[in-house]
Amino acid sequence: DAICATWPVGRLRVADRGIREGILFELMQGASG
Questions:
Q1: How confident is the model at residue 1 (pLDDT cuts 50, 70, 90)?
Q2: Contact 11, 4 (CB under 8 A)
Q3: How far is CA 16 from CA 2, 4, 26, 32, in A?
Q4: Residues near 18 by Cβ (< 8 Å), separated by ≥ 6?
Q5: Residue 17 in contact with residue 25, Cβ under 8 Å?
Q6: Distance CA 4, CA 24 (A)
Q7: Main-chain phi, psi angles of 7, to 5 degrees
Q8: Could you tell me where the beta strands, DSSP code E, fall in the chain?
Q9: What is the Cα–Cα distance from 14 to 8, expressed in whole angstroms?
Q10: Cα 30 vs. chain centroid, distance in angstroms?
Q11: pLDDT tens digit string along 7-25?
């Protein structure tokens, strides 16, 4: 937790990555049927 508090950018990257993966997953689901 201390590292996250010191490096908020790292948390943002992880969150952004999760959002992108979620969008890609939805796009794949929609494209497949």
A1: low
A2: yes
A3: 20, 15, 15, 24
A4: none
A5: no
A6: 26
A7: -125, 75
A8: none
A9: 10
A10: 19
A11: 677 777 888 888 999 999 9
Q: Which amino acid type is present at position 24?
A: L
Paired tokens of 12: 């943002």
pTM: 0.46
Q: What is the pLDDT of residue 25?
A: 92
Go through the chain and tell me how many residues it has.
33
Look at residues 26, 27, 24, 5 and name the one whose alpha carbon lies nearest to residue 16: 24
Dist CA 7 CA 26 (whole Å): 30
Residue recorded with tokens 């590292």: 3
